[in-house]
Amino acid sequence: MQKASASWLVCLILLAFCAGTPAQQSESKDRFMFWENNLTGFLDRSGQVVIKAQFSGAQDFHEGLAYVILNDPASGLTQVGYIDRAGEMVIKLPPNSIGRRFSEGLAAATVGSKVGYIDKTGKLVIEGKFQEMSDFSDGLARVKMYDKFTFVDKTGKILLDPIFDEAMDFSGGLARVRIGSRWGYIDKQGSYVWRAK
User: Fold this and answer.
1) Distance, CA of 108 to CA of 105 (rounded, Å)
2) Which one in 9, 81, 158, 167 has a CA-CA gap of 20 to 30 Å to 45?
3) Which DSSP category does 15 fall into?
4) What does DSSP assign to residue 9?
5) Would the pTM of this model clear 0.85, i.e. be above it?
6) Which CATH number fits the domain 128-197, given the four candidates 2.115.10.20, 3.50.50.60, 3.40.47.10, 2.40.10.480?
7) 3-state secondary structure of 45
């Protein structure tokens, strides 16, 4: 009976990961990238150009914003930041900044020499010594510090010391983690709910 219960638990955990996060499921895509003369623009669902091809780099829209790089050949200046669905630059970042998509209201970014997460005003609200950063999922983001993984919450609090050799994002309240060759699942308090023998 115990073996059957453990099998069902593993199946349920795998289904939760395959289903995706609620944010991924509920966002409807209404802007689609296209390329013209090595520049990126956006189309609507009917194929009409809604934002002309002008960006030397762009990411898909998420939570109503898309990270873009805009080079102005006349001035030689580069502008980076986030545009809204109308194509207006609503968050301007300093040159040489790098951003990721927004997830749960925050986006991983390198702003000048600072690394962390920005809010939808462009303010760096979580700063850390992160080597890698993932999107927020289930209220936590996977980060790499000192060559190991851990998780950070939306206030910047680190869940536990960076001890994992590998970690996946939280989904359904659990995250898959590995130390050495042993995989397991932890809850949001950092406690194992299952660990391979």
Assistant:
1) 11
2) 81
3) H
4) H
5) no
6) 2.40.10.480
7) coil
